[in-house]
Structures are given as C-alpha cells and as structure tokens.
C-alpha cells in the first residue's frame, strides 16, 4: 500500500506555482486550463482553489509576482554593486540577459502578458517596467552629466534601452547564435557609443537636419 506524504500548505503552494509557471510559459495564459494544472500537479481542482480562490487569474498573478521579484532583485543587486556608470550599465544588462537565459518562461511571460488578460496584471507589469526604467534613467543621467550633456532626456533613453533589450533578448533566446557575454558586450557598446554622438540639445536636432 502506497502512503501519500501530506505536504505542508506552503510546500503545496510552491509546487502549484512551479508547475503552473512551466505550463503558463509553455502554453500561455489563455491555453492553460485549471484542469491541466491540477492534473500535472496530481491534485484536484478544489485543492487549487483552496490555495488560489481567484482561480487561474490569481494563480497567474502569483507566478508573475515571483518572476518580478526575482528580476528586480538581480537587477538592483547588479546595478548597486558599482558606482561607475558604465560598469553599472554593463552589470544591469548582464543581469537582465542572465535572467532571460535562466528563466526563459518567466521572461516571455513578463514580456508578453498584457492588460487584456486582466487589468490588474497590466498595472503590475507597467509598475515593474517603470521601476526598471527609473533605475536605468538614474544611471543614464549620471553618464550624460559626466559628458556635459543635459540629462532631462534620460527617461526617454531608459525606456528605449529597455524596449531594445527586450527585443534583442527575445531574438537571442530563440537563436543562441553567440555566447551571452558577447551579446551583453555588443549591447553595451551600442548604448555607450550612442552617448558619444548625442547633441547637447536634442530638441534642436531636427532643425539642424532640415538646414543641412
């Protein structure tokens, strides 16, 4: 006779989260059903609702929260480990790409989830991206000030960098055409050298082009 081991509540919850994260990452939110999660975890649907009364939406939110917490932790630890702006950018980019490599399902969930699934999910993701962008903007502002440039455009450059990094990371995870550290070096070179050519007053850049 097989004796089932009764898991503690937190242990059961963690197993549900881990298996759900894998299924959501493989199939996406809409194609993943509670029945499938229950079957994969070896439990009944009532067990899932006991831990997550809001059903699939609440479970998905909990999975996202775990990914968000991990990503924010590795980013802030990386960028806080140096006072040199270029080194901060390098470590931040490396941490972001590293998170995507180690947790590809998590990256794709964070990059692909939208408010169409649930307004609260959209708000949570928007807050996460804004916090990341603010951290990047602080570093970019330091770089610009050090180069004698006006730094009020740092927020714009931060969001552009974040969007570009997502695009590169999505491509690299699909192709793996080069080592991770090489991808990071190319990204840093692109960003860092881009600051060299920035005009002191970007608002006048279009006028200068029109006159040339």
Explain what this protein looks like in three dimensions:
It is built from ten helices and no strands. With 212 residues, it is mainly α. The model has no long low-confidence stretch (mean pLDDT 83).
Give the total of beta strands.
0
CATH superfamily caption of the domain at 64-198 = Tetracycline Repressor, domain 2
In what range is the share of β-strand residues? under 5%
Q: Which residues sit in consecutive blocks of at least 5 with pLDDT less than 50? A: none
Order of helices and strands: HHHHHHHHHH
> Which of globular, elongated, flat, extended, rod-shaped describes the shape?
elongated
Q: Tell me about the biggest sheet?
A: none
What oligomeric state best describes the polypeptide chains here? Answer: single chain
Provide the CATH topology of the domain at 64-198. Tetracycline Repressor, domain 2
CATH architecture of the domain at 64-198: Orthogonal Bundle
Structural class: mainly alpha
Provide the gyration radius in Å.
21 Å
N- and C-termini, Cα separation: 86 Å
Kindly provide the name of the CATH class of the domain at 64-198.
Mainly Alpha
Fraction in helix: over 70%
Total number of helical segments? 10
Average the pLDDT over all residues and give the rounded result. 83
């Amino acid at each position: 006779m097989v004796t089932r081991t009764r898991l503690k509540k937190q242990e059961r919850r963690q197993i549900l989260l881990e298996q759900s994260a894998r299924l959501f990452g493989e199939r996406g939110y809409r194609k993943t059903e509670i029945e499938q999660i229950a079957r994969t975890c070896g439990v009944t649907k009532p067990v899932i609702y006991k831990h997550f009364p809001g059903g699939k939406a609440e479970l998905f939110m909990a999975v996202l929260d775990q990914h968000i917490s991990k990503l924010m932790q590795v980013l802030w630890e990386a960028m806080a480990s140096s006072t040199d702006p270029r080194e901060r950018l390098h470590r931040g980019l490396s941490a972001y790409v590293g998170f995507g490599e180690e947790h590809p399902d998590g990256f794709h969930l964070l990059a692909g989830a939208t408010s169409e699934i649930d307004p609260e999910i959209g708000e949570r993701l928007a807050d996460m991206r804004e916090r990341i962008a603010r951290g990047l903007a602080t570093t970019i502002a330091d770089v610009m000030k050090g180069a004698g440039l006006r730094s009020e455009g740092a927020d714009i450059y931060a969001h552009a960098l974040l969007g570009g990094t997502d695009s590169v990371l999505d491509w690299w995870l699909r192709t793996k055409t080069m080592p991770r550290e090489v991808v990071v070096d190319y990204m840093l070179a692109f960003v860092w050298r881009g600051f060299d050519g920035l005009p002191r007053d970007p608002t006048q850049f279009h006028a200068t082009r029109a006159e040339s």
